[in-house]
Amino acid sequence: MTLNCNGKIINFDDQKIMGILNVSDNSFYDGGNFNSIDKALSHVDKMLNDGVDIIDLGGISSKPGSKIINDKKEWNRLKKIIVQIKKNFPNIPLALDTRKSFVMKKGLENGVNIINDVSGLNFDEKSFNIIKLNNVP
Q1: Which residues contact 69 (CB under 8 A, 6 or more apart)?
Q2: What is the phi/psi pair of residue 109, to 5°?
C-alpha cells in the first residue's frame, strides 16, 4: 500500500520506523536536548543512520499537565528547523506533531508531509479542514 504524504509517496508494504525529534524544553521524551538547529540536524542525521524512515517533529510537550503555548510561539520554535531539515534531508518524510491548525498550515506550506495530532483533530476545530484541504495524512 502506498500513501501520498503531501507529495511524498511512501510505500507501507513493510513496517516503517518513525524517529522523534522534540524541540520543546518541556518534552517528556528528551527534555529539550535538541532545541537548536545544529543539535536538531545532528539528531536527525543520527536517526537516519540508525534506520529511521520518517522524522516526527514536535514543538510543544503533550505530556499531561504541560503548559499550552500560543500558536505563533510554537511555530517560531519549529519553522527554522523544518526548513533546515527539508534542505539538508530532502528525501526523508517529515511528520509534524501539533494540535493547532495554524501550525499545521504553516508546516504544510514549508514541506511537512504528515500531520500527527495527538488530539485526533479535536483540540482545534479548524484542524480537520486543514487536513482535508491539503489532502494530507
Answers
A1: 60
A2: -65, -20
Q: Which of 132, 16, 19, 116 is nearest to 62 (CA)?
A: 116
Task: Output the 3-class SS for 50-68.
Answer: CCCCEEEEECCCCCCCCCC
Residues contacting 131, CB < 8 A, separation 6+: 104, 115, 121
Query: Between β-strands 54-58 and 2-5, what pairing exists: parallel, antiparallel or unpaired?
Result: unpaired
What does the DSSP 8-state code read for residue 69? P
Which residues, other chains included, contact 90 with Cβ-Cβ below 8 Å and sequence gap of 6+?
none
Q: Is 58 left (phi over 0), alpha (psi -120 to 50) or beta?
A: beta
pLDDT tens-place string over residues 107-135: 999 999 999 998 999 999 999 999 999 99
Name 9's bridge partners: 4
Burial 49-80 (b: 16+ CB within 10 A, else e): eeebbbbbbbbbbbeeeeeebebeebbebbbe
Give me the percent of the chain exceeding a pLDDT of 90: 75
Which residue's C-alpha cell is 486543514? 130
